[in-house]
Design brief:
heterodimer, A: 301 residues, mainly alpha, MetI-like fold, 81% helix, 0% strand, B: 262 residues, alpha/beta, Rossmann fold, 2 domains, six-stranded mixed beta sheet, four-stranded antiparallel beta sheet, 10 strands
Chain lengths: 301, 262
């Protein structure tokens, strides 16, 4: 039993590492591309060449891992664990049955709702709490108690309240995102230098204008970082929620593929898809950091 | 424009700012710290006054009280006879740590206090102050991409753009290298001569004070009191090797209790 579990675990590890590397390199190349785009001296093809130079290493590394994986599977054949080709087959299988798009859309749908609701509630609330010292003193202890509760611990309550279905999954994502976002917003307010607030008041701003013209632009960069991290959490939670509360989506795909005939090629295919979409989501959030009026918050000096 | 009269502070000017027996004390952990004790000071309209004293002596606290960011524990500060009760765009504070807004461009920063003006009035005003501080060509640049000296000029321009009566500068050139600092001093004097704002300038640099001010207010260590007020009766541009300059400078050195030989 244990012997069977191990390669699976290490394989997962390998995949995880792969995506981490890919993620880093994509981010790095995006950053340098953004930098290159601004530099009027740098012609476009040279920017493209720079991307290539940054990307070839991680791509080569991924290729190497895939080869090792293939060799490992051939040396110790297992009828359950797929090799890279098996996984490709699994993905094609999903595409053929029209399941890939359907499940991806289902998962993204839940993430979108849960995440958006959390953003809409947690950020204004967090900014207000951060702004009013007394509100924070009153609310902080309860926040600190609720925060460390894993979103997964809410599963029974989610099912009790919302039944088995989309609503329960959306709720879980909401809970998973709400507290980190709120704390991000509170801390973002705290880290606004007093100089900016003073300057705003000096120019005669009232409270509403102070919030709109000073507080808001001053917290945006740290909020974006919080949003990035939280969207990552949302993507983690949706998979877990789908394993229990619903019968569609990528999380469901993974448990279903295992339960219905040990289709480990589909299990790993699901994992690969989850990783790639997670990477794309993070990439999208990160591109917000390149907006010119936000970039001061991420200066490297 | 260029009048032939000598630039020496006139004997009788209208009082712009009066500080009347002001004391400031902070309470922290039940311990009372007295920062300022019985400060009395009158500043004339259009005068350039430097507050000079050792670091941490409370000069900045006094400036903050003048700006209305904190209220004195006792005594009162009046501007044009009106007691200061809070910050006001008629007196703009220029901060020691860069107070420019990093999320706005040079233009956006200078126009920050002008949002109530119609665009047709705002734009020429912004352009005027960009020219005055020599930031042409950097209109769309974000502060992050400017040098320290440029940021400080930008902050002065932002302050001047709202046409305040008074500028309160808190060691504005403290973080800059000495060459940039000299350049900015000359620039500030030029702006002051053009606009004739009342300027209160906090510094711990004796040379800076003697180069710039009409009067230098020498403050003692905490709790700060006014130790002496030195009138610098040298016309601008000042020759910093003239005997009179060196005399005044040495006098302040001694006043602060520093030997002027290292």
């Amino acid at each position: 039993m244990v012997g069977k579990e191990n390669p699976q675990a290490s394989q997962r590890q390998v995949l995880f590492q792969t995506f981490l590397k890919l993620h880093d390199s994509v981010c790095a190349s995006a950053r340098s591309a953004a930098r290159a785009n601004e530099d009027p001296q740098m012609p476009e093809d040279s920017a493209a060449r720079m991307n290539l130079r940054l990307l070839w290493r991680p791509l080569a590394f991924i290729a190497l891992l895939l080869v090792l994986w293939e060799i490992g599977i051939r040396r110790q054949p297992s009828h359950l664990l797929p090799g890279p080709w098996g996984v490709v087959g699994g993905i094609l299988d999903l595409v053929h049955h029209g399941l890939l798009l359907k499940y991806v859309v289902a998962s993204l749908f839940r993430v979108t709702w849960g995440f958006t609701l959390a953003v809409a509630l947690a950020i204004p609330l967090g900014l207000a709490i951060g702004w009013y010292r007394r509100a924070e003193l009153a609310l902080n202890p309860i926040l600190q108690i609720l925060r460390p509760i894993s979103p997964l611990a809410w599963i029974p309550i989610a099912i009790l309240w919302f039944g088995v279905g989309d609503l329960a999954a959306v709720f879980l994502i909401f809970v998973g995102c709400f507290f980190p976002l709120m704390l991000t917003a509170i801390n973002a307010v705290h880290s606004v230098p007093a100089v900016y607030i003073h300057a705003g008041r000096n120019f005669g701003l009232g409270s509403a204008a102070l919030v709109r013209r000073i507080l808001y632009p001053a917290v945006v960069p740290s909020l974006i970082v919080g949003l990035r991290i939280t969207l990552g959490i949302a993507w983690l939670v949706v998979v877990a929620a789908e394993m229990i509360a619903v019968s569609s989506g990528l999380g469901f795909l993974i448990v279903d593929a295992r339960n219905a005939g040990n289709r480990y090629d589909l299990v790993v295919a699901g994992m690969v898809i989850i990783g790639i979409i997670g990477l794309l989501l993070d990439f999208g959030m990160q591109s917000l950091q390149n907006i010119r009026s936000f970039r001061w918050g991420y200066s490297e000096d | 424009m260029a009048q032939a009269q000598p630039i020496v502070a006139p004997a009788v000017v209208r009082t712009k700012l009066s500080v009347d027996r002001v004391s400031v004390a902070f309470e922290r952990d039940g311990k009372r710290t007295e920062v300022l004790r019985d400060i009395d000071l009158e500043v004339g309209d259009g005068e350039f006054v430097c507050l000079l004293g050792p670091s941490g002596c409370g000069k900045t606290t006094l400036l903050n009280a003048m700006a209305g960011f904190l209220s004195p524990s006792s005594g009162a500060i009046r501007v044009d006879g009106e007691t200061v009760r809070g910050p006001d765009p008629r007196r703009i504070f220029v901060f020691q740590e860069r107070g420019v807004f990093p999320w706005l461009t040079v233009e956006g920063n200078i126009g920050f206090g002008l949002s109530k003006l119609p665009k047709t009035e705002r734009d020429p005003r912004i352009a005027h102050y960009i020219r005055m501080v020599g930031l042409q060509g950097f209109e769309k640049t974000y502060p992050q991409e400017l040098s320290g000296g440029m940021k400080q000029r930008l902050e002065v321009a932002r302050a001047l753009a709202v046409n305040p009566d008074m500028l309160l500068l808190d060691e504005p050139f403290g973080a800059l290298d000495s060459i940039t600092r000299l350049g900015l001093r000359a620039e500030l004097l030029r702006i002051w001569e053009a606009e004739r704002k009342t300027i209160i300038f906090v510094t711990h640099d004796i040379d800076e004070a003697v180069q710039l001010a009409d009067r230098v207010v020498v403050m003692s260590a905490r709790p700060a009191r006014i130790q002496e007020i030195v009138t610098i009766d040298i016309a601008h541009p000042r020759d910093i090797s003239s005997p009179r300059y060196l005399d005044l400078r040495d006098g302040i050195f001694q006043q602060i209790g520093l030997a002027h030989k290292l």
